[in-house]
């Protein structure tokens, strides 16, 4: 399982990479592995301002659909449109080309409440 040290994580298995006040968000390697083959990514929240924990979209795998939750409050300023035609990119490269949204953060202090790589690894391994 890949858990990059330079990212923050949520208990709902989203990752976040902060550059200034712009956050790139996706789902973790663990999450895509648990979901299996992803067949559809639905994100219709472009230009919406959402609170942390709000649903910003969903991921559909062969056997299940899972909601995607915002790790931080902010406005969705970009969605990864390549996932519309190639949702399997999330399986192949969850921390790179498989990113889902970019968000203009409205409260950077919320980052402090997220998990670091060690805490997230402990969460998913139960150790």
Quick structural overview:
With 127 residues, this protein is of the alpha+beta class.
SSE blueprint and pairings:
Blueprint: E1 8-9, E2 14-19, E3 22-27, H1 29-35, E4 38-42, E5 49-50, E6 55-61, E7 65-69, E8 74-79, H2 82-85, H3 89-92, E9 101-105, H4 117-125
Antiparallel strand pairs: 1-2, 2-3, 3-9, 4-6, 5-8, 6-7, 8-9
Core attributes:
globular; 9 strands; OB fold (Dihydrolipoamide Acetyltransferase, E2P); three-stranded antiparallel sheet; 127 residues; six-stranded antiparallel sheet; single chain; alpha+beta
> Fraction of residues in helices?
10-25%
Q: How many domain units?
A: 1
- The counted number of beta strands is 9
Radius of gyration: 13 Å
Overall CATH class: Mainly Beta
Strand content: 25-35%
What's the main sheet like? 6 strands, antiparallel
| Shape descriptor | globular
Distance between the termini: 14 Å
The helix count comes to 4
Order of helices and strands: EEEHEEEEEHHEH
- Structural class by sheet pairing and helices: alpha+beta
How do the strands of the widest beta sheet line up side by side?
1-2-3-9-8-5
Low-confidence stretches: none
Any idea of the CATH topology?
OB fold (Dihydrolipoamide Acetyltransferase, E2P)
Per CATH, the architecture is Beta Barrel
CATH homologous superfamily label:
RNA polymerase II/Efflux pump adaptor protein, barrel-sandwich hybrid domain
Overall pLDDT, averaged?
Answer: 96
């Amino acid at each position: 399982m890949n858990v990059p040290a330079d990212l923050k994580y949520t208990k709902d298995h989203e990752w976040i990479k902060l550059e200034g006040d712009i956050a790139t968000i996706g789902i973790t390697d663990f999450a895509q592995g648990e979901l299996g083959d992803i067949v559809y990514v639905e994100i219709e929240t472009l230009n919406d301002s959402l609170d942390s924990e709000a649903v910003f979209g969903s991921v559909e795998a062969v056997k299940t659909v899972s909601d995607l939750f915002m790790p931080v409050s902010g406005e969705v300023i970009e969605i990864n449109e390549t996932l519309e035609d190639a949702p399997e990119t999330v399986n192949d490269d969850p921390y790179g080309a498989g990113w889902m949204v970019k968000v203009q953060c409205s409260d950077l202090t919320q980052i402090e409440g997220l998990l670091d790589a060690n805490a997230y690894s402990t969460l998913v391994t139960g150790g």
